[in-house]
Amino acid sequence: MDASSNGNITISVSHRGIIHPLSLLPDSTLAYLQARLEELTSVPPSNQKLLYKGKKVVAEDVSIAEAGLKDGTKVQLIGPTAEELGGLKATESEHQRKERVLQERAQRAPVKVRSTGRASPSSDSQYTFHKIEPLPHLPNPAAARDLLTRLANDPAIRHVMRKHQFAIGLLTELAPHEQPHLLGLNVNAGQAIKLRLRTDRYDGFRTYKEVRRVLCHELTHNVWGDHDNNFKELNSTLNKEVAEFERAQAAGTHHLAGPGFEYPHTALEAEAQEYVLGGDAQTLGGMGAATASDTPEERRRRILDATMRRLQKEEEELEQRCGTEGH
């Protein structure tokens, strides 16, 4: 006699490519399910994100049936294990931590970066990635280390880290087969940042700009844990500053204003202008055919708008595939 004939609800929970079949009573609580999943996956209930069709937002003490789970439901579990979080528990609330970080930043003088000077050695050593470590059990760890080192030494990334006073303990990678739905993870507000470097089939690496965009996203989690408006504002600022820095560096100055230059108002527009004004416009799709009556400015604006739409879509996907929120 199968479980359903006994009145039980049978579900299958997928975590990092492993399927865990579970048979539960309909009146079993959501908290009980999370406890079972912790036994199977080592992911604490506070870190668990359960994704399934028909999900309802409910309290942990309700039954799994009330939470929308039915017989045969397929569930995707996302979340880092306690070991991955270093086994550390926060000693202050998220609100207190945010207030503390903001107060400390307000008390510090802003870091000024000049194109003709060099940052002091003490500044470089403090606001940087203090350790770089690829996963040795994955193919070609030397190439992974080279990519991580390139990211850590990226002048634009170093610029925003000094400006916002970010210090990261460890920069490492995520294994696609272990966390297939994640592109990035910030552990304990800067203890470690983990990035998805490799393709699903391990036959190469994701493009540099894709990975760097995820890195900016995870750096934002040093200050804000959730993907709220505060997070979006700072993340937008970081991406904008990276794009502006690179254009300024190419022009030999850190001042972008000049005749004929329209100052970007958002990170998307700054990065879009980097594509449009940097000569890569012909590689962008989805704009529709240009007409003979289009002026150069109209063509530039069409390309800019199309690029902004593409970047917005990429940012939405990144938020969905970030493992940091809520931890």
Would you mind describing this structure in some detail?
The chain is an alpha/beta fold. 39% of the residues lie in helices and 12% in strands. It is built from 9 helices and 8 strands. Helix 6 (208-220) packs across helix 7 (229-251). It is globular, with a radius of gyration of 23 Å.
The gyration radius over C-alpha positions equals 23 Å
Helix content: 25-40%
The ordered H/E elements are EEHEEHHEHHEEEHHHH
Please mark out the parts with pLDDT under 50 across 5 or more consecutive residues, or reply none.
Answer: 87-92, 109-119, 254-266, 275-288
Structural class: alpha/beta
The main pleated sheet reads as: 4 strands, mixed
Shape: globular
Chain-averaged pLDDT: 76
Content of β-strand: 5-15%
Short synopsis of the structure:
Helix content is 39%, strand content 12%. It has 327 residues and is α/β, with parallel strands linked by helices.
Characteristic key phrases:
327 residues; alpha/beta; four-stranded mixed β-sheet; 9 helices; 8 strands
